[in-house]
Recover the amino acids of this structure.
């Protein structure tokens, strides 16, 4: 939205620099509807002299200058968010319409009838073609603009209404473009546009309420917030209910005051803790801002009488402890806006703050956040008093009237630090390193360490209400103004160095030489003095100025220290203690602050009207005209240029902080070389201070949090373990109960199956009986239809005759009316001709007389002509009225004639339809006659068999009684089965969920089986390896056993030979020969070489005892190997058995689950199939019985028709009774000629069932009668039975006739078999 006069970027070149707004912190909360959403992620709000388009996700900003709307009073967005309305106040209030997408102003609207100096509210109509604006005091004029044409459409002065208070809000109907609503103090009016006039309608009791805000919930409902914590709900213009906002922190509701006092409402003077200040609607309800820092969420109620109910409360921020006493720190919400997707809500407060929060879901059990967060940063709640920028860091410090000091990062556009003081701030200065800050308070000048999250006091200098202070460029000295004195303090030793004197008035501003060798001070007496900071002596003094309010110092391009001092519209350049040049500035208002950018040859000045003035510096390069840029609404309190001279920061009394970007220098700029030398070698201090105490406190806090977390984790694990145990126990119990219920249901389903089969058989028999009974009634129906047709034919003839007579009468009446009308017209025309002729003759006569007396009677002639024309006009008007009346009569007669013709055509169509029905009935009559003949033959045969069924009737009487009782029980069981089927369907859903859970468990078991298979494979490989080792050990053992046996045999032989040799001890020669033979036998032959080559032969040679020990060692090695092998085989067998057992159990479990699932699904399918079969059979029975159309499937039998059928059946039974009596009389006359009949021995059953017919109060239960008529019944018994049947049918018919208005046909007819014995 670029201004037509001033762009966002001011393309005025000043020594090679172009300035543009980069970022802005601030908002104007006093503007009505000060924040609105223009799209999903962008909000628009006024701040300074701009409209700021702020992205809520990336926090990027775009600016639109509203220089002509410098005093906006209200904002409004169109329904489709295409246009933005900005209302301007002042001497000539106006309304401007902006294109949101094109960023340009489309129309500038004003109304000459406005006597107020501002508009309080505005709104677009639904079609976005008109804008409604509500003017302020004293006349409260409501203006409706056609903004595309730039015209005023309608104007209404509300001040004409007696007792009217201040108007607070205006809104338009969401669908009707001609409906508006206005609310305020004792004001609640609805207006409707009618012929460019606004007229009141709807609720007229608005004088009983002090309304604050309003919003349309839908096209029927209007919500109005009041000053006593209530929301009025109006539907169709009438008050339906009043919703009270309730919360423990809100004070109790009081009586409605006669005047409204509060923030954001005309005439208000302070905050009200129960005032509803803002409303916004979303799809599920609405948000209501009531009281400080509180937003209440109301949800739509399903109850029509309740409308809305309070759901929960959101907090904007926490108030300070002294907030409820002094009011400082409270945030009364003035505007709410919701993004189009209803995801984010943004709130604006009267303290110039913006907060945002995601809109919580109404269905969420736990809300993610009940506390709003700042949209980007906490802003100043009042005006900015002083500001300073750091030389070596991208930081600017501001102090405001809200007693807060804020540190901003102007490169990353973030708020680094906020500190609140208990005293007012008068001045401040930041150290070049950005690690210290000095703040001038009411009683002292306080020096602080700037930590990463707070300020810590370093020292204090006893200076009251210090008007100015600043650090030296090196940061080792602080200069502060104490009245007309300047105090120098060392920042290293924190001791006072010098007290500089020379001014006779209050020092207003100070500055330093770039090398820190001298300090300059300017005072209100017009003197500017430079002091040597080493010796504290004055270097130079300038006294020719009237007064000095601001001072800016810098290093010029030629290396000399230069200063700019001034007052109001004149300022002077001083270099080396000498006045170089003086210049005046008359545009943009009084200059109150200035700052220099020597490298970029720029001077920036702030005025009392909020404009930023730019020109070149030194002044010999300056032009005669300044570049004026609107920056703030009120006076600019401080203008500072950053250390790298890349940005300008302006602060104003409106609480806004604006960062302006300066373009880079080009090669041809005068300061290009100086920028390379001075600005590229600046030191950087990227971090802030952190104290040891803070670190220790943070570490202790972290340890405490870790302990709490570990404790919570252990506690949670214990709770989870207990919950898991409880869950497993409840799961087992549920499984057992579920299995029992399933078994029980299986039994019930089997019983239902058996009952269904029995009912189907009974139903088939009943169907056959009903078919048989209805065949006898067809003849009577045919006769009645014949009578009805004859009656309809006669009625049709009468109607045709009557229609012809009416047609003739109508033609005759029309002809007579036309003839009479022509005669009357002719007579009236003749009379008119006569009158005209007579008047013409009189006129000629009068003309002749007038010609003779023209000079005397000119006035008489005019009078006669006028009277004549009047008489002629009267005659013509009377004749015309009569003609119109006659014409209307003719038109009425023609319309009646057309209606009669239409009725005649309809009757002809009805006659054709009746003829078709008659033809169909004739055909049906033929079929029925053939059927009747066949039935008569069957009746004759049955009559012969009646006498043979007397005994069967007596036997069946008992079964009939039991069957009736059984029918009642079956109906009850049927109802129970239906109810159980519904319960089964409801239980299928958790069963399906359980099946899904079991499927997941099966999947987990399969994964466990895969892991088990891997383990079993590894175990099998180990078993194979151990088996191979055991086999090898076995082979070795066998080899050792064989070797041991061989050695034992050889040893036995040797021992035997030695024993034999021992007998030759007394014969030396023989002993020698025996020894030689032993040597030759065992040693030289080499057969037992291994015997003595082994190392243990020495032990064997020592004696038989050692030999026995060696043999026992070899004997124990083999059993040990065998024992190990056996143990390994047993472990392998155990593992295999466990694996097989687990696999089998897993397969059985999976199989049982799948089988159970299959059975349940099959049973449900069978039940559904049976239900459909029963419904189909019921429809077939109703079709056969004539109660349902067999083609369309719709019911065609009403209650009256059912009663009529029963009455006809009673008549048929009476007729059959008479015929049977006649046949019995004939049979008695024939004697004993009757014998046993052997041709047919089947039973003839007549079942008369009176079912349960549902009524409006319930089910009307009728008595069920069944009768079986066997063959062979005697005449008296037959007569008695038929009489009983007739009586029963008559009683049933009478009962139904008395209740026919409540009888409806049953949707399902139960099939009962009377032959089935009772269980």
């Amino acid at each position: 939205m670029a201004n037509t006069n001033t762009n966002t970027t001011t393309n005025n070149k000043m020594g090679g620099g172009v300035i543009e707004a980069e970022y802005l912190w601030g908002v104007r909360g006093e503007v009505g509807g000060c924040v609105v959403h223009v799209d999903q992620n962008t909000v628009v709000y006024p701040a300074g002299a701009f409209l700021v388009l702020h992205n809520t996700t990336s926090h990027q900003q775009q600016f639109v200058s509203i220089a002509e709307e410098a005093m906006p009073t209200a904002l409004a967005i169109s329904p489709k968010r295409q246009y933005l309305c900005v209302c301007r106040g002042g001497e000539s209030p106006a309304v401007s319409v902006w294109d949101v997408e094109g960023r340009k102003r489309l129309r500038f609207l004003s109304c000459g009838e406005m006597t107020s100096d501002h508009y309080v509210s505005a709104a677009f109509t639904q079609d976005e073609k008109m804008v409604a604006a509500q003017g302020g005091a004293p006349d409260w004029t409501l203006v409706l603009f056609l903004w595309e044409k730039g015209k005023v459409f309608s104007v209404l002065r509300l001040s004409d209404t007696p007792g009217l208070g201040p108007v607070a809000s205006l809104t338009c109907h969401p669908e009707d473009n001609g409906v508006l609503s206005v609310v305020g103090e004792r004001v609640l009016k609805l207006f409707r546009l009618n012929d460019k006039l606004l007229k009141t309608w709807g609720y007229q009791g608005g004088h009983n309420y002090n309304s604050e805000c309003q919003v349309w919930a839908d096209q029927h409902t209007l919500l109005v917030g009041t000053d006593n914590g209530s929301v009025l709900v109006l539907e169709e213009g009438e008050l339906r209910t009043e919703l009270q906002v309730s919360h423990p922190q809100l004070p109790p509701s009081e009586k409605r005051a006669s005047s409204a006092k509060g923030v954001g409402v005309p005439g208000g003077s302070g905050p009200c803790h129960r005032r509803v200040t803002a409303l916004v609607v979303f799809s599920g309800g609405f948000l209501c801002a009531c009281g400080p820092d509180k937003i209440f969420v109301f949800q739509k109620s399903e109850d029509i009488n309740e409308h809305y109910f309070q759901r929960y409360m959101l907090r904007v921020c926490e108030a300070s402890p002294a907030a409820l006493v002094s009011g400082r720190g409270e945030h009364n919400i003035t505007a709410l806006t919701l993004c189009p997707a209803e995801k984010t809500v943004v709130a604006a407060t009267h303290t110039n703050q913006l907060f945002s929060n995601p809109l919580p879901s109404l269905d969420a059990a736990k809300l993610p956040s009940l506390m709003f967060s700042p949209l980007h940063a906490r802003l100043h709640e009042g005006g900015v008093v002083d500001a300073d920028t750091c030389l070596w860091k991208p930081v600017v410090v501001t102090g405001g009237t809200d007693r807060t000091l804020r540190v901003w990062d102007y490169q990353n556009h973030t708020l680094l630090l906020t500190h609140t003081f208990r005293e007012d701030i008068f001045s401040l200065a930041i150290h070049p390193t950005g690690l210290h800050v000095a703040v001038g308070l009411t009683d002292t000048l306080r020096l602080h360490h700037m930590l990463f999250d707070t300020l810590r006091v370093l020292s204090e200098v006893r200076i009251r209400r210090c008007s100015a202070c600043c650090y030296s460029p090196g940061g080792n000295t602080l200069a502060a103004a104490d009245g007309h004195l300047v105090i120098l303090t060392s920042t290293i030793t924190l001791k006072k160095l010098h007290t500089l004197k020379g001014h006779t008035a209050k020092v207003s501003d100070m500055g330093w030489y770039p090398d820190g060798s001298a300090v300059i001070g300017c005072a209100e007496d017009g003197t500017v003095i430079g002091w040597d900071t080493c010796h504290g002596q004055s270097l130079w003094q300038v006294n020719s100025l009237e007064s000095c309010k601001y001072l800016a110092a810098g290093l010029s391009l030629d290396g000399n220290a230069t200063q700019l001092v001034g007052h109001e519209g004149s300022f002077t350049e001083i270099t080396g203690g000498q006045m170089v040049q003086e210049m005046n500035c008359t545009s943009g208002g009084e200059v109150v602050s200035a700052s220099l950018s020597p490298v970029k040859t720029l001077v920036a000045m702030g005025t009392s009207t909020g404009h930023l003035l730019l020109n070149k510096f030194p002044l010999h390069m300056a032009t005669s005209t300044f570049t004026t840029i609107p920056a703030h609404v009120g006076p600019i309190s401080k203008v500072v240029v950053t250390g790298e001279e890349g940005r300008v920061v302006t602060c104003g009394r409106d609480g806004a902080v604006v960062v302006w970007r300066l373009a880079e220098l080009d090669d041809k700029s005068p300061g290009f070389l100086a920028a390379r030398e001075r600005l590229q070698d600046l030191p950087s201090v990227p971090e802030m201070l952190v104290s040891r105490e803070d670190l220790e406190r943070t570490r202790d806090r972290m340890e405490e949090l870790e302990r709490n977390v570990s404790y919570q984790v252990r506690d949670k694990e214990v709770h989870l373990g207990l919950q898991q145990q409880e869950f497993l126990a409840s799961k087992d119990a549920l499984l057992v109960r579920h299995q029992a219920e399933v078994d029980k249901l299986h039994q019930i389903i089997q019983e239902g199956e058996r009952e269904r089969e029995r009912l189907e058989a009974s139903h088939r028999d009943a169907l056959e009986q009903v078919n048989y009974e209805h065949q006898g009634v067809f003849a009577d129906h045919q006769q009645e239809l014949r009578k009805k047709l004859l009656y309809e034919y006669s009625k049709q003839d009468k109607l045709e005759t009557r229609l012809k007579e009416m047609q003739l009468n109508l033609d005759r009446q029309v002809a007579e009316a036309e003839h009479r009308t022509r005669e009357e017209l002719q007579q009236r025309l003749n009379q008119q001709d006569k009158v005209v002729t007579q008047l013409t003759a009189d006129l000629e006569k009068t003309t002749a007389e007038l010609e003779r007396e023209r000079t005397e009677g000119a006035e008489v002639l005019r009078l006669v002509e006028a009277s004549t024309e009047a008489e002629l006009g009267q005659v013509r008007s009377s004749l015309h009225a009569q003609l119109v009346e006659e014409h209307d009569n003719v038109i009425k007669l023609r319309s009646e004639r057309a209606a009669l013709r239409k009725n005649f055509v309809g009757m002809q169509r009805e006659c054709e339809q009746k003829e078709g029905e008659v033809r169909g009935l004739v055909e049906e009559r033929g079929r029925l006659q053939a059927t009747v003949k066949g039935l008569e033959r069957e009746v004759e045969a049955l009559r012969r068999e009646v006498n043979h069924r007397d005994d069967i009737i007596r036997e069946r009487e008992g079964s009939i009684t039991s069957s009736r009782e059984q029918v009642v029980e079956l109906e009850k069981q049927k109802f129970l089965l239906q109810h159980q089927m519904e319960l089964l369907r409801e239980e299928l859903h958790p069963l399906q969920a359980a099946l899904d859970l079991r499927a997941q468990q099966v999947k987990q078991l399969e994964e466990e089986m895969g892991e088990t298979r891997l383990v079993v494979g590894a175990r099998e490989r180990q078993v194979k390896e151990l088996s191979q080792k055991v086999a090898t050990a076995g082979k070795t053992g066998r080899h050792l056993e064989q070797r041991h046996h061989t050695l034992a045999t050889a040893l036995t032989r040797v021992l035997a030979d030695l024993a034999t040799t021992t007998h030759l001890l007394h014969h030396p020669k023989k002993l020698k020969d025996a020894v030689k033979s032993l040597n030759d036998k065992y040693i030289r032959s080499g057969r037992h070489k291994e015997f003595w080559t082994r190392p243990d032969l020495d032990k064997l040679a020592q004696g038989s005892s050692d030999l026995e020990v060696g043999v026992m060692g070899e004997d124990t090695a083999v059993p040990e190997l065998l024992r190990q092998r056996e143990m390994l085989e047993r472990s392998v067998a155990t593992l295999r058995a466990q694996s097989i057992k687990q696999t089998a159990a897993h397969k059985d479990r999976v199989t049982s689950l799948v089988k159970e699932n299959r059975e349940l699904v099959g049973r449900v399918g069978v039940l559904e199939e049976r239900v459909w079969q029963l419904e189909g059979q019921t429809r077939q029975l109703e079709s056969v019985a004539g109660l349902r159309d067999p083609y369309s499937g719709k019911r065609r039998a009403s209650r009256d028709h059912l009663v009529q059928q029963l009455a006809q059946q009673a008549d048929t039974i009476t007729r059959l009774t008479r015929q049977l009596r006649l046949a019995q009389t004939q049979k008695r006359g024939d004697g004993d000629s009757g014998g046993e009949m052997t041709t047919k021995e089947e039973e003839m059953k007549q079942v008369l069932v009176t079912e349960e017919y549902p009524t409006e109060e319930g089910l009307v239960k009728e008595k069920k009668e069944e009768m079986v008529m066997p063959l062979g019944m005697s005449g008296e018994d037959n007569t008695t039975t038929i009489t009983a049947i007739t009586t029963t049918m008559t009683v049933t018919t009478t009962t139904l006739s008395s209740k026919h208005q409540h009888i409806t046909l049953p949707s399902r007819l139960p099939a009962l078999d009377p032959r089935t014995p009772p269980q």
Observations:
- Residues 1205 and 1293 are 9 Å apart (CA to CA).
- The two ends are 91 Å apart (CA to CA).
